[in-house]
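Problem: given the chain below (156 residues), write out its structure.
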Amino acid sequence: MSDTRAAETDAGKVVFERFVDLWNGEVDFADTPEFIADDFTVHSAELARYLGFPDSRRITTRDGLLDWVTSVRTLLHDVRFTTRPGPLREGDLVAGGYTVTGTYAGGAPTATVAPGTAVRYSGMSIIRLENDKIAEYWVLSDALGLLSQLGAVPRP
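Solution.
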C-alpha cells in the first residue's frame, strides 16, 4: 500500500471513529463541522413513526443529523455504539459493523415495554467522505430486533 493510500485509510478510520463517538455522546456538537459536511444525506429505513425520531430519510443537513443523534440518545439514555469489525476503507467509502446497547428511557409512541428495559442490536454503517468529511451515511441496522425488544412489533 502506498504512503498516500495508507494515510487516506487512516484518516477515513479516524473520521468513522469520531462519528461513532458522536453517537456515544463523546463529541461536542460544536466540533462536528470538523468531520461532517454541511450538506449531509442519510439512507436508512423509516423508523420515525415507531420511535418518535425525526424521519432519517429526510435528513439533508448536519443539524438534521444532530437532531437524530439527540433523539437516539434520549430514547436510550445510556446508549453505547461499539464498532466490530472495521472500520474498513475503499476509496471514499468507510464501513464498519457495530453493536448498540442501551436502556430504554421511555417516550417511543409504539413501545409497550417499561422504561428501564435493556436493549441490544447490531448493524452496519457506511459513510462516504468528501474532503475528509462525512457527506453521506447508510445505516443498515436490525431495526426489527430493536422494535421487538421495545414491544413496538410482535417478536418474530
